[in-house]
Design brief:
242 residues; alpha/beta; 2 domains; globular
């Protein structure tokens, strides 16, 4: 299984469908809904001929008790992304626990750009203290994820459709959970937007490269994002791949 090359064109179609279904699994619901999502994921893994994911899903039948749908979805998605990036099947391994023994910090990534969500997610993946359990593409969806997932950390863009990041912060300040780190090119540290974000309760403001398709986010800003994220949830500044 390990090392077998996979069809690149098939993988390009596979990953968006996989992540969408994994997000449905992470969103919760009753056991019947969880089983439907797992069945859909099994079908996708079989169609793409990714034996490592098929094996991981077989291990979930019957469902363990208790079953953490969000953590399972995050682990399955992380492995799917690794397989697609490698272009070949890889052994499935459970995610590492943080070095201090704490459970991984449940994290929500909010950005209207799918590319940026992926880059922010990959930046966090270098630190096992964090597990991305949900994503949102606009402010209204972010509030739904906050209510449904109760994340411990929210990485929040500012310029988004439907409801912008400052609007999210205003509603989050009333009833939301977790800490917020703003990751946005619109919130220049020390500027008006950044000052307002901090006034509304954001723990930190981190810039990101201009433009929706800046491939150097992981290299140039990944460390800044991880440091801000660790400070926001009370962890030491160093951790993961520093």
């Amino acid at each position: 299984m390990s090392g077998r090359a996979l069809d690149a064109e098939l993988l390009s179609f596979f990953l968006p469908e996989w992540e969408a279904e994994a997000a449905r699994l992470a969103a919760g619901g009753d056991e019947a809904a969880q089983r439907r999502s797992l069945d859909a994921l099994r079908g996708l893994a079989s169609g793409a001929e990714i034996e490592s994911l098929r094996g991981a899903l077989r291990a979930l039948d019957p469902l363990p008790d208790p079953f953490d749908a969000a953590a399972t979805a995050a682990a399955l998605s992380a492995h799917a992304r690794a397989v697609v990036a490698a272009g070949r099947d890889l052994p499935f391994t459970e995610p590492s626990a943080p070095a201090d023994g704490r459970d991984a910090v449940r994290t929500l990534v909010v950005d209207d750009s799918a590319m940026m969500r992926r880059l922010v997610r990959e930046s966090l993946a270098a630190d096992p203290a964090f597990a991305v359990v949900a994503e949102a593409a606009d402010g209204r969806e972010a509030l739904e994820r906050i209510a449904g997932q109760s994340p411990e950390l929210i990485l929040l863009d500012i310029e988004m459709p439907v409801l912008d990041g400052l609007g999210v912060l205003r509603e989050w300040a009333l009833s939301g959970t977790g800490a917020v780190v703003v990751v946005s090119s619109a919130a220049v540290p020390g500027g008006e937007v950044a000052t307002e974000a901090r006034r509304l309760g954001a723990s930190a403001v981190v810039g990101k490269p201009s433009g929706a398709f800046s491939p150097d986010l992981g290299e140039r800003q990944g460390e800044a994002i991880r440091r801000a994220a660790r400070r926001a949830v009370g962890l030491p500044p160093h951790g993961g791949a520093a």
